[in-house]
């Protein structure tokens, strides 16, 4: 018997609890690791391309030929390498955060940017900028994480008040809640002449990432590792509160841990590079189609595919209007929104 806050998942459709396809089960573990290594190699190729794209002339010849160009080396070390690492770390962290949030909310259309998490983090950054502008970046990030945690908890609390919620209603609730946070943020930013600063938090842009300005994202990488360690608990929590309790686990503690991880990751990414929408929505859904809903099996793939997706969006944004750049958040928003509509309009995604 299911509790009101943990309604049963449908037996079919996009929102159903997925088991891995038979082909995947039959080939594990023999082919799982080689396929993951191929995916990692593909991401490394994209990272190599990212290092060579830009206005400044940086090629392997200028870097390794006799009498290497010092300026090219400086551009690589100070700008290109930090930018590429920031792209990969952001994609990995946001993808895993989306997977965790989908399991906690038990809905595939939920991620930090459709649950009000990112918008509440942006509100937190604005609040600390107005009230305590001299705080260090780490302190501002912690404040933003607190706001993100409160916003996500409010989202889940609202869902508990909708006992017979439709699978399509859940993301709509998150979008409305996020719009409320965003409206409040925009209002106060206008009042305090911070609209220009606000645009930096709401647009995922890596053009200003340099050495010394992205290292906070390594903490997000550590949090991603923690998520992998406790992945089995998130898988159980995704089955519902009653199921989790029957196994002797504390459902509230697991949810609290998951919310803390999601809030911290989202705050770090928003504070460092701004919002990058749909990463935590698209990547976990694609991985779930291939591997099912086992978090321990899925997290490495989500991390790798998240990094690759953000790298690919960045490369497209830098090439389409070369030598100018289109922000990664814009490219990811266009691609992600199209894929989001595809998931919504799929015939087997209609429940009820």
How would you describe this protein?
This is ABC transporter permease. Belongs to the binding-protein-dependent transport system permease family. FecCD subfamily. Its main location: membrane. With 352 residues, the chain is mainly α. It has a single domain, classed as ABC transporter involved in vitamin B12 uptake, BtuC, CATH 1.10.3470. Helix content is 69%, strand content 0%. It has 15 helices and no strands. Helix 2 packs parallel to helix 14, helix 6 (137-160) runs antiparallel to helix 7 and helix 13 (279-291) crosses helix 14 (295-319). It starts with 21 loop residues before the first helix and ends in a 7-residue tail after the last helix. Mean pLDDT is 80; it is low at 1-16, 22-27 and 347-352.
């Amino acid at each position: 018997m299911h509790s009101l806050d943990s309604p049963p998942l449908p037996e079919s459709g996009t929102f159903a609890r997925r088991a891995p396809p038979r082909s995947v089960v039959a080939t594990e573990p023999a082919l799982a690791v080689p396929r993951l290594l191929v995916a990692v190699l593909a991401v490394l190729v994209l990272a190599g391309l990212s290092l060579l794209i830009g206005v400044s002339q940086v090629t392997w010849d200028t870097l390794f030929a006799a009498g290497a160009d010092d300026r090219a080396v400086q551009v690589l070390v100070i700008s290109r390498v930090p930018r590429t690492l920031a792209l990969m770390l952001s994609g990995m962290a946001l993808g895993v955060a989306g997977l965790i949030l989908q399991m906690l909310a038990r809905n595939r259309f939920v991620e930090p940017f459709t649950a009000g998490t990112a918008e509440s983090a942006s509100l937190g950054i604005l609040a600390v900028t107005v009230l305590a502008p001299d705080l260090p970046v780490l302190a501002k990030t912690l404040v933003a994480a607190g706001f993100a945690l409160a916003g996500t908890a409010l989202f889940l609390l609202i869902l508990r008040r909708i006992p017979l919620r439709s699978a399509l209603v859940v993301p709509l609730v998150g979008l409305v809640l996020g719009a409320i946070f965003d409206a409040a943020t925009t209002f106060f930013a206008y009042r305090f002449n911070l609209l220009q600063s606000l645009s930096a938090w709401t647009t995922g842009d890596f053009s200003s990432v340099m050495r010394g300005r992205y290292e906070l994202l390594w903490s997000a990488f550590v949090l991603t590792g923690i998520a992998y360690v406790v992945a089995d608990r998130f898988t159980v929590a995704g089955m519902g509160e009653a199921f989790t309790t029957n196994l002797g686990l504390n459902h509230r503690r697991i949810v609290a841990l998951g919310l803390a991880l999601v809030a911290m990751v989202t705050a770090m990414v928003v504070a460092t590079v701004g919002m990058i929408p749909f990463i935590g929505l698209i990547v976990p859904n694609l991985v779930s189609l291939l591997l099912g809903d086992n978090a321990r099996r899925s997290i490495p793939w989500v991390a790798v595919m998240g990094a690759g997706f953000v790298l690919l969006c960045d490369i497209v944004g830098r090439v389409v209007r070369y030598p100018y750049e289109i922000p990664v958040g814009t490219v990811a928003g266009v691609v992600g929104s199209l894929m989001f509509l595809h998931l919504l309009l799929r015939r087997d995604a209609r429940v009820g």
